[in-house]
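User: I'm designing a mutation panel for DUF445 family protein and want to avoid disrupting the core. Could you give me a predicted structure to guide residue selection? Please restate the sequence first so the numbering is unambiguous.

Assistant: Good idea. Sequence first, for numbering, then the predicted C-alpha cells:
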Amino acid sequence: MGYAAAVDDIDWVAFASIPVFTGVVGWLINWTGLIMLFNPIRFYGFRIPGLRELATLLPRKLQEIPGIMEGRVGWQGIVPARAAKMGSIASDKAISKLGTPAEFYQQLEPDQIAGHIVAMFEPQIPEVVDGVMQREQPELWNNLPPRVKVAVYERVTQQLPSIVKGITDQIGVHIDQLLDPKLMVIDHFERNPDLVVRIFRDIGKKELRLMVNVGFIFGFLLGIPVAFIDHTLHQWYLLPVLGVFVGWVTNLLGMQLIFEPVEPRKIGPFTLHGLFLRRQPEVAEVYAGIIADDVVTLENIGNTLMDGPRGDRTRAMLATAMRPAIDRAAGPARSAARLAVGGRQFDSIRDSFADEAVDRTITPFRDPAFSKRQSDKIRRLFASRTAELPYQDFVEMLRSAIKEDEWMLYAHGAVMGLAGGFLHLAIFGVSGG
C-alpha cells in the first residue's frame, strides 16, 4: 500500500524530465567543451589593472587559465594557447623518434635539390658575377672586353653543378649540428596556432564527433539515479549539486572513452581500448600529411638553417666550403688573376662571391612549389614511423599538451550541470514539494 502510494505520488513528467535534462545538458557540455578547446585561435579579452600582480598569488591551476598571468580576463582555446607546448611534446614523443635531421634531409633527395638550385641559379650567374666584380674591382671589370666577361660567365656556369653539389653535401654532413628539429617545430607551432587546431580536428574528427553524441548518452544514464535520489529526498539543492557531479563526470567519461585505456585490455569477450588509439594507422596517415606539408618541409628547413639560431654558423660553413670550388672555377686564370689584382684582393673577391652564392643557392629551399613536391617523401617516412609508435607515445603525442588543462573542461561541465539543475528547479520545482 505504501509503495503504491509512493508511486502514485510521483510527478512522472518532472521525474522523467530529469534524465532528459541531464542528457541534453551532457550534449551541450561536450559540444561547448569542444568550442572551448579550439576557439578562439588568438586571445580575446581585456586587461584588469593589478591582476597580473595578484595572479602570482593564485593557485597554480588558476594561473594556467589563458591570459591570467598577463593580467587579462578573457579566453583563448586551450589547444592554440598551448601551441608551443604541443610542438615540444610532438617533437619529444614523436618527431624525434621518427628520424634524425639527416634522415629527413636524405628523404628530400639532396641530388634533386642540387639540380633545382642549378636550374634556378644558372640564369643569375652574369648578374652575380657583375655585382661582385663591380663591388670589389669595378675599374678592372669595366675595362675587360665583353668576350672575356662571357668567358668568365661560362666558366662559372660549367663549375656551378659541382659548386652546388658541394653545398648540398656539406648541409647533409653537418645538418645534425645546424638544425634542431625541436626548436623548428616549436617555433612553427607557436607562430601558427591554427595549425595545431587543425591537427587535433583532422586526426580526431571521428572521436570528437562521437564525444559530443555520447555526452547525451552519459548525461541521460547519470540522470536516472539522480531522478530517484531527487524524488526520494525532496531537497531543493539536490538537482544543482548532483548537476555539478553529472557535468563533471560527463566530460571526464568522454575524454576517457577517447584516450583510455592506452593498452588494449581484454575483459571476457570484450576488448577495451581508447577509440583514438584503435585508429592509429589511419591517424598516422593524416598526421604525417600535416607534418610533411606544413611543419618539416624543405622550406621550413631552409628558413631554419639560414635564419634560425644557428644561421650564422650555416652561412659561415657554406661560404668556407665554397671557396675551393670557386678557386676551381677560376681555372688556369687563377694565378694570373691573383697577380693582376693582388692575393688579398683576389681572396676578397672569392669570399664575396661565396657569400653571394650562399644566399642564392639556399633560395630554392624556400620555394613553396618545390618544397611541396618534396614533401611526399617526408610524408611516407612519417606515416610508417608514426604507425609503429608504441601506444603510450602515440597518445601522449596529442593528449599531453592539454592534459594539465583538462580540468578546465571538467569545471566547465560542472558549471553547466549546476545551471541545468537550477533551470530544472525553476521549471518543475522541488520533487514531491
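For picking mutation sites, this is relevant: The longest strand covers residues 44-47. The CA atoms of residues 337 and 346 lie 7 Å apart.
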